[in-house]
Amino acid sequence: MPEDIKGLHHVTSMAADAQQNNDFFTKTLGLRRVKKTVNFDAPDVYHLYYGDEAGSPGTVMTYFPFPHIRRGRPGTGEVSETLFAVPRGSLGFWTERLARQGVAGLEAHERFGERRLRFRGPDGDGFALVEVDGDPRTPWAGGPVPAAEGVHGFRGVSLRLRDAGATAELLRFMGYEEVERQGATTRFAIEGNGADVIDVETLAVAEPARQGAGSVHHVAFAVEDRAAQLRVRKALMDTGYNVTPVIDRDYFWAIYFRTPGGVLFEIATNEPGFDRDEDRAHLGQALKLPGQHAHLRFRLEQMLPEIRD
Q1: High-pLDDT (> 90) share of the chain, %
Q2: How far apart are CA 143 and CA 153, in angstroms?
Q3: Measured between alpha carbons, how far is 23 from 26 in angstroms, rounded to an integer?
Q4: How many CB atoms lie within 10 A of CB 286?
Q5: Residue 255 near residue 246, CB atoms below 8 Å
Q6: Which residues belong to any copy of the VOC domain (predicted)?
């Protein structure tokens, strides 16, 4: 199984307002909205995807904007911070840009030898821009941020756990290696698609997180295709994990399981991709509905809030 995991695929979080969420990721961070669809289980709620030009695995941040959802409470058992890779030397640009736009929580610091700029999303989401040298991924050049300073994709995520032992064992089983420790945080890395690191922070006395707006719902790991996904599923189940059946998410196939630390993991395929129902030049423009909800189009178009680009 270890050779099947290719780094992160996407990170899915929750928000309170679709327009605010769209504006933050497309206008402030300069990502491309690559898909506008709905939550499979709650079709009256959008599912918005942001990433590079094609929505490549390892670049895609996705959101369920639930109107009137309460703010999440940070704690243990969650993804505490999502890390985006930016070009070396670009943090000055980003500090000025985010400060000018009133982004909260700006804090420059260094971890594992990497310069970072921490900040908060509209719902208190934990983010950091991390300078990475030589990242071959191409930032989206069609937005307000020049490609020379743009977001390449994910660097990785940070998990905050009460006890990291079993989750560390799981990550090793998935092909990650422990590469460094700094204080209460251990870094795990894999040679993958660029979204290659998982930082695990242990806080034994912290309260459990309460999910809500600003919380990460799940973190997805990439595999090349369905055959690889089935190998991973079997390996996890043979080890004792309770893994869902394969679920068709239109743009990838997915399986889910809860980790020992409480974080929900997904394994998602790189196929078929976000251009399966839209050409690349027009990704994210039209409202796309899963087949089981196609009959609801008229009602959903009336009730979903308009998103102004």
Answers
A1: 98
A2: 15
A3: 5
A4: 12
A5: yes
A6: 7-132, 153-270
Q: What is the pLDDT of residues 211-260, one digit of tens each?
A: 999 999 999 999 999 999 999 999 999 999 999 999 999 999 999 999 99
- Rounded Cα distance, 216 and 10, in Å: 11
Looking at the DSSP assignment, which residues form a beta bridge with residue 267? 221, 255
pLDDT by residue (tens digit) across 95-148? 999 999 999 999 999 999 999 999 999 999 999 999 999 999 999 999 999 999
Q: Cβ(169)–Cβ(124) under 8 Å?
A: no
Of 194, 182, 70, whose CA–CA distance to 137 is shortest? 194
Residue 2 banded pLDDT, cuts 50, 70, 90:
low
List the alpha helices (DSSP H) in the chain.
18-23, 91-100, 165-173, 226-238, 297-303
Structural contact between residues 52 and 283, judged by C-beta atoms closer than 8 angstroms: no
pLDDT reading at 1 higher than 80: no
Question: Which residues share a beta bridge with 132?
Answer: 87
Residues with Cβ within 8 Å of 167's Cβ and at least 6 positions away in sequence, in order, are 159, 161, 200, 259, 260, 261, 263
